[in-house]
């Protein structure tokens, strides 16, 4: 909102109202008062001055009057007398003037003198001070006029003496009149002088009185000034002195609204501030003291302050603990460490005495052992007052550590001397500080030939002198070492000594700028490492490169292939080697392998690489293969050369070889691919004609692709559990009834239909899927069997791969527990391959399984290694004769003896025998004849879904209520 311009602002109003008040305020200040006092004094002085000036002026005026009026009047009266005298003289001359001209001139002169006289009289009358003088002047004028008339009327020629006498009388009258005038004027002058003197005297009196009054007034003003200013100033200065003297509680007078009032108020607040400050400081000091006391009390150091007289001025609790064990014993003044020993009570007499006794230790710096076994470090520092402060630290732990350190050092020395490495420790100047015995041993130095203090250079010199570095100088060794340790990775430097030993030197800088070097005789290790490195890439039996080395060779061939030409990878497999190995034993097998390797080595060129991949598998990388024919030539030569008979100890053996060949770059440009394709070709060669070679063809790969698809489907099927179990009855020939069923896995592929377990089980084993799959079979079979009539067993096939997993036992236990099937009704069928892989753990696992109550059968007996030792190594409950033997029963050739032998073996070992694959009555009859316990085969039933089991049981066992 706009304010009306005519309306005064608040400030203006305030100032308008405040002006008189401000003036009053200002005048009530000390300055105002001094101003007023001086103003009054100035006014008094001014009035006095003015009055004096007026008095002087009055005196001047009187002087003027005295001179101008009185004396001038007399003078002019006298001049008039002179003029008249002249007139009489001129008249006399005229009377005697001879001629008229002279008379005329004298007449004029007379007229002029008459005028002068009249003028002088006028002035004399004018200046006269009194009426009588004026009247006398007029009388003179009249007498002169009368004289002049008489003179004129006088006839000179005829004049009588009386006429002359009249004239003279008149003249005398004039003179008399003039004298009277003179007397009057002189009298007037005197009168005037008297009057002036009177006036001056009265003025002086008045001035003296005025000065007196002015002095009085000034005194009053000074008194007032003193009363209103000096007194409060004195009071203020007294208050200031009191504050300065520290009397802060004395009252400070209350001042007015002037500066002194302000000064007093300021002093008041100054006093308050000082008081608050002091209070604060006192508090701070108190709390600092409290903290100091607290810190002292809680300090882990004992502090004792001793005064100049040797008395304890202060001792903290820790000191009391150190020396007395009781705080009271260390009260200030309680003891005098300087007191003579004789005056002290015996040690241990009382706490104070103990303190006193112990405190004597404070007399010097150093370490002290207390009676209770603790160690103290005492450090003293003198105080300004002539006493001292002793600070005592408990160094028991340090002492203990020191002792431990000493012990450790001794042990360290022992360790140094007994360590297998040589060690030299040098200081920053490369001077030897520590050397151990082993160092001297390594370099063949006499014990004590190098000692602490000699330079690193001298040490090297001694080593050279001892014959460690023939033909080399210290400089050579230093350069060699500097180069080795100068490299980024260089911490270890390997040195070969003159006698062929190898020393690994490791050097590390130490914190003090020196270094420590360790020396290890690594001759043995180096040789072992070289051997290990060789073994890692070579086959121990034939000394040929192994698969790793071959991989490197293939990689290098691939790297060169683009530039030069292609190369071939040949995978070789010795035919029937296993037979030789099994029949003639491993030593013969090994010899045969070595001989074959040697022949192979003779077949290949320097540039080619030959490797043994394992067992009876070899591979060759043939370089510079431009045409497949080059590889074919080599393959043919190998087949020929290896096919020649071998003479091993007492035997002559012939051996075939099958070869698969892949060509780079056409069959692949990676090691894996080339090896795999050569393998595929080898498989084909073995399948089609042993002792032949095959080149890889893409169609071969198609099989692999199919396998890969199957792999994928199998994974999905396992995840989805899309399998079924079929059950084939096992018929007990003694009881003439079905005694159980074998659970057989079935996979109904959504596209390919039913796939044989013989096809997918090996794949599942390869992929590790057999473990979850086998567990599923176990659960399902036990579940199913638990619903069968008591006495019926279920046989479950267990893969060798399942035995590699510790989960098997748990899985069986869980399946039994979940289904409630008693362990005795479960039979586990395993093949010989299970035992071949790892007989030790497998046997243990089989025992665990038997511990669950389950029975264990040896399946497909006769097809595998058929080593009777396997039958001995584990107490099987049952032997299952493989169907390949059963198939031939009743036919012309004589596999019957094998069946009989197995049945006999089983009987003698107390094992049940079961014949598999019984398809005909003839086979059954023969098996009965041979005393076989159980049979299984299409003759009784194919494997059927669980839903068919009741029918089967009804048929074979005649059971009405077959399934629970
Ligand atoms: P296996 O344990 O020896 O099983 C017997 C095989 O012989 C079964 O083939 C069965 O159908 C077949 N067989 C039975 N009687 C006759 C007959 O009179 N004549 C002919 N020619 N064959 C007969 P299947 O079911 O194809 O099983 C093949 C193999 O797959 C089994 O041989 C077994 O080793 C394995 N297998 C089957 N199921 C499983 C399983 O659940 N787990 C494991 N690990 N392997 C299994
Ligand atoms: Mg079986
Ligand atoms: Mg079998």
UniProtKB/TrEMBL annotation:
Residues 288-324 form the PAS domain. Keywords: Membrane, Transmembrane, Transmembrane helix. It comes from the Bacteria. This is EAL domain-containing protein. SUPFAM superfamilies: EAL domain-like, HAMP domain-like, Nucleotide cyclase, PYP-like sensor domain (PAS domain). The lineage of its organism: Bacteria, Pseudomonadati, Pseudomonadota, Alphaproteobacteria, Hyphomicrobiales. Residues 1-20 are annotated as: Disordered. InterPro entries: Biofilm_reg_signaling, EAL_dom, EAL_sf, GGDEF_dom, HAMP_dom, HlyB_4HB_MCP, Nucleotide_cyclase, PAS. Residues 707-957 form the EAL domain. Residues 565-698 form the GGDEF domain. One of its GO terms (cellular component) is membrane. GO terms for biological process: signal transduction. Pfam families: 4HB_MCP_1, EAL, GGDEF, HAMP, PAS_7. Residues 1-13 have a biased composition (Basic and acidic residues). It comes from Methylobacterium soli. Gene3D superfamilies: 3.30.70.270, 6.10.340.10, EAL domain (3.20.20.450), PAS domain (3.30.450.20). The chain crosses the membrane at residues 34-54, 206-225. Signal peptide: none annotated. Residues 227-279 form the HAMP domain.
């Amino acid at each position: 909102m706009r304010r009306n311009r005519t309306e005064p602002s608040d400030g203006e109003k305030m100032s308008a109202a405040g002006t008189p008040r401000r003036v009053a305020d200002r005048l009530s200040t000390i300055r105002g008062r001094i101003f007023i006092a001086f103003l009054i004094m100035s006014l008094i002085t001014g009035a006095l001055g003015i009055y004096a000036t007026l008095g002087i002026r009055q005196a001047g005026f009187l002087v003027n009057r005295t001179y101008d009026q009185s004396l001038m009047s007399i003078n002019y009266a006298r001049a008039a007398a002179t003029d008249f005298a002249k007139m009489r003289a001129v008249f006399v001359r005229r009377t005697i003037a001879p001629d008229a001209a002279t008379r005329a001139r004298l007449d004029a002169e007379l007229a002029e003198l008459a005028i002068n006289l009249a003028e002088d009289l006028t002035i004399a009358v004018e200046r006269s001070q009194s009426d009588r003088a004026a009247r006398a002047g007029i009388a003179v004028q009249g007498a002169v006029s009368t004289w002049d008339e008489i003179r004129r009327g006088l006839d000179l020629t005829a004049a009588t003496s009386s006429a002359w006498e009249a004239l003279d009388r008149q003249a005398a009258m004039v003179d008399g009149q003039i004298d009277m005038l003179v007397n009057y004027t002189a009298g007037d002058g005197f009168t005037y002088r008297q009057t002036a003197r009177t006036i001056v005297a009265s003025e002086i009196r008045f001035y003296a009185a005025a000065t007196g009054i002015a002095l009085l007034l000034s005194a009053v003003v000074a008194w007032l000034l003193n009363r209103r200013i000096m007194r409060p100033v004195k009071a203020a200065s007294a208050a200031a002195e009191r504050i300065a003297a520290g009397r802060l509680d004395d009252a400070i007078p209350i001042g007015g609204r002037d500066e002194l009032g302000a000064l007093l108020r300021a002093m008041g607040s100054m006093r308050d501030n000082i008081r608050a400050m002091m209070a604060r400081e006192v508090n701070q000091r108190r709390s600092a003291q409290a903290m100091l006391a607290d810190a002292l009390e809680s300090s882990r150091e004992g502090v004792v302050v001793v005064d100049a007289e040797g008395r304890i001025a202060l001792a903290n609790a820790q000191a009391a603990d150190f020396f007395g064990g009781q705080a009271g014993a260390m009260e200030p003044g309680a003891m005098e460490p300087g007191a003579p020993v004789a005056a002290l009570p015996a040690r241990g007499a009382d706490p104070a005495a103990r303190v006193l006794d112990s405190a004597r230790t404070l007399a010097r710096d150093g370490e002290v052992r207390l009676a209770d076994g603790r160690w103290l470090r005492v450090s003293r520092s003198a105080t300004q007052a002539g006493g001292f402060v002793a600070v005592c630290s408990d160094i028991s732990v340090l002492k203990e550590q020191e002792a431990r350190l000493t012990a450790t050092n001794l042990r360290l020395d022992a360790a140094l001397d007994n360590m297998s490495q040589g060690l030299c420790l040098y200081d920053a100047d490369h001077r030897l500080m520590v050397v151990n015995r082993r160092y001297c041993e390594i370099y063949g130095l006499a014990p004590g030939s190098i000692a602490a203090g000699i330079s690193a250079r001298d040490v090297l010199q001694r080593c050279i002198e001892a014959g460690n570095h023939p033909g080399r100088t210290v400089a050579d060794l230093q350069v060699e070492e500097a180069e080795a340790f100068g490299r980024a990775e260089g911490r270890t430097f390997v040195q070969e000594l003159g006698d062929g030993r190898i020393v690994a030197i490791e050097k590390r800088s130490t914190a003090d700028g020196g270094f420590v070097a360790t020396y290890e005789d690594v001759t043995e290790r180096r040789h072992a490492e070289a051997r290990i490195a060789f073994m890692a890439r070579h086959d121990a039996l034939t000394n040929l490169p192994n698969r790793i080395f071959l991989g490197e060779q293939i990689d290098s061939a691939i790297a060169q292939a683009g530039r030069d030409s292609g190369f071939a990878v040949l995978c070789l497999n010795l035919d029937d080697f296993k037979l030789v190995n099994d029949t003639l034993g491993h030593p013969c097998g090994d010899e045969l392998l070595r001989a074959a390797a040697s022949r192979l080595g003779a077949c290949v060129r320097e540039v080619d690489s030959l490797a043994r991949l394992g067992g009876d598998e070899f591979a060759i990388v043939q370089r510079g293969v431009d045409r497949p024919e080059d590889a074919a030539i080599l393959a043919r030569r190998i087949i020929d050369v290896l096919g020649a008979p071998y003479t091993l100890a007492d035997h002559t053996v012939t051996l075939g070889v099958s070869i698969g060949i892949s060509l780079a770059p056409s069959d692949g440009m990676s090691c894996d691919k080339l090896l795999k394709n050569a393998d595929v070709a080898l498989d084909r060669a073995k399948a089609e004609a042993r002792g032949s070679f095959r080149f890889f063809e893409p169609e071969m790969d198609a099989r692999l692709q199919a396998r890969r698809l199957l792999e994928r489907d199998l994974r999905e099927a396992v995840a989805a559990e899309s399998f079924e179990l079929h059950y084939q009855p096992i018929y007990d020939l003694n009881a003439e009834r079905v005694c159980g069923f074998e659970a057989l896995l079935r996979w109904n592929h959504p596209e390919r239909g039913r796939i044989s377990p013989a096809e997918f089980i090996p794949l599942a084993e390869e992929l590790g899927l057999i473990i979850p799959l086998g567990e599923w079979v176990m659960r399902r079979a036990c579940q199913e069997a638990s619903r069968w009539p008591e006495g019926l067993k279920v046989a479950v096939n267990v893969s060798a791969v399942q035995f590699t997993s510790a989960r098997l036992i748990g899985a069986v236990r869980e399946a039994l527990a979940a289904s409630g099937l008693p362990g005795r009704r479960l039979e586990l069928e395993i093949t010989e391959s299970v035992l071949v892989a790892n007989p030790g753990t497998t046997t243990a696992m089989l025992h665990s399984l038997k511990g669950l109550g389950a029975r264990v059968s040896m399946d497909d007996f006769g097809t595998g290694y058929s080593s009777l030792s396997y039958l001995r190594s584990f107490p099987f409950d049952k032997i299952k004769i493989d169907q390949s033997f059963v198939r031939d029963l009743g036919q012309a050739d004589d596999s019957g003896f094998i069946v009989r032998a197995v049945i006999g073996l089983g009987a003698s070992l107390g094992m049940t025998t079961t014949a598999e694959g019984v398809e005909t009555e003839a086979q059954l009859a023969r098996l009965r004849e041979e005393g076989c316990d159980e049979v299984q085969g299409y003759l009784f039933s194919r494997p059927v879904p669980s839903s068919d089991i009741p029918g089967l049981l009804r048929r074979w066992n005649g059971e009405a209520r077959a399934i629970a």
